[in-house]
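Hi, here's the filled form for the chain we discussed.

Project: internal
Contact: R.S.
Residues: 106
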Amino acid sequence: MALSEDAVMEELKKVIDPELFVNIVDLGLIYNVEIVDRADDEQKDIKIDMTMTSPACPAGPQLIGNSKQMVGQLEEVGDVEVKIVLDPPWTPDRMTDDARDQLGIF
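And the returned structure, exactly as it came back:
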């Protein structure tokens, strides 16, 4: 699969929130994915803007590490940067229908 935003999002779906047991994409924690060309080689750097369900989320470091690990395994990927953003704040409205079903939210 060619490196694209969709490919990055598919890898991020493998990152599961350890408290809610739902992937971070369906939870709506991923705000932005940017693929940046490198001038010196054929690899591309990935920049991810991500939020947490709460500012003091204890799973934050684990989610960041797992995100970097999963995306870093893709071909053509150089550096992976995950930036935590809290604006706009996360709300349950950002969840997909699949996430709502898994959590029993209707």
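Let me know if anything looks off before we file it.
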